[in-house]
């Protein structure tokens, strides 16, 4: 017979694993590279066409020329909730430098659960509703959160699977912003 304290301890341990490692699906999780890849190693990010909460169609191609943080998440994912305020801060601080955050909700219940969640958090970046098709386009998103940092040419510069630190994201964003600024300066000479 299992005691209540043993059950509570097991539940706490499971919560900690999910918090630190992400909300995993039944598939094995592939390793993630957190740092920005050299330009020669970047592959084109798959384009997509998804609807936002107002029913407008959004394509990744619409963001060509911007640095994009593309985040796959869900309302029930604890680590996703930790990252979202960071992404709101990045959107606020870097949007005038050609940066955008796009969130792709993987909630099966759809907008009925996503919209109230977004309103409660006052999310300031674009949210789209995803499905299995877009998850497969991006290599089979196997854990939430999964985040791709995409350069101005539409190539995947970094991938984070599971909860990553705010500084990892920000370092990648700043690296891409700096390389763009350096390229513009060099081209102006």
Question: Would you summarize the structure shown here?
Answer:
This protein has 189 residues and is an alpha+beta fold.
Structure notes:
The chain is α+β, with helices and mostly antiparallel strands and 189 residues long. It is built from five helices and ten strands, in the order H-E-E-E-E-E-H-E-H-E-H-E-E-E-H. The chain has one domain (22-188): Glutaredoxin (3-Layer(aba) Sandwich), CATH 3.40.30.10. The strands form three sheets. Strands 2-10-9-5-6-7 form a six-stranded mixed beta sheet, with helices on one face. A two-stranded antiparallel sheet has the order 1-8. The radius of gyration is 18 Å and the shape is globular.
The percent range for helix content is 25-40%
The oligomeric state of the chains shown is: single chain
The run of helices and strands is HEEEEEHEHEHEEEH
User: Compute the gyration radius: what is it?
Assistant: 18 Å
What percent strand?
A: 15-25%
Structural category is alpha+beta
Order of strands in the sheet with most strands: 2-10-9-5-6-7
Under CATH, the homologous superfamily reads Glutaredoxin
Q: Any low-confidence stretches, pLDDT <50, length ≥5?
A: 1-21, 24-34, 184-189
Can you tell me the overall shape?
A: globular
Q: How would a textbook summarize the main sheet? A: 6 strands, mixed
Ends apart, CA distance between termini: 77 Å
Number of strands: 10
The domain tally reads: 1
CATH topology: Glutaredoxin
CATH architecture: 3-Layer(aba) Sandwich
The average pLDDT value, as a whole number, equals: 84
Number of helices: 5
The level-1 CATH class: Alpha Beta
């Amino acid at each position: 017979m299992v005691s209540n304290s043993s059950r509570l301890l097991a539940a706490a341990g499971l919560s900690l694993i999910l918090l630190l490692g992400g909300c995993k699906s039944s598939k094995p999780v592939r390793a993630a590279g957190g740092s920005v890849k050299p330009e020669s190693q970047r592959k084109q990010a798959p384009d997509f066409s998804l609807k936002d909460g107002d029913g407008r169609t959004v394509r990744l191609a619409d963001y060509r020329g911007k640095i994009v943080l593309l985040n796959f998440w869900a309302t029930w994912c604890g680590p996703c909730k930790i990252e979202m305020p960071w992404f709101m801060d990045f959107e606020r601080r870097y949007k005038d430098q050609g940066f955008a955050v796009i969130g792709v909700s993987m909630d099966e219940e759809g907008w009925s659960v996503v919209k109230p969640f977004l309103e409660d958090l006052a999310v300031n970046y674009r949210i789209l509703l995803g499905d299995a098709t877009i998850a497969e386009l991006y290599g089979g998103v196997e854990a939430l959160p999964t985040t791709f940092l995409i350069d101005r040419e539409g190539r995947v510069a970094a991938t984070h699977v599971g909860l990553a630190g705010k500084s990892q994201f920000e370092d990648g964003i700043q690296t891409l912003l700096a390389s763009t600024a350096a390229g513009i300066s060099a081209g102006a000479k």
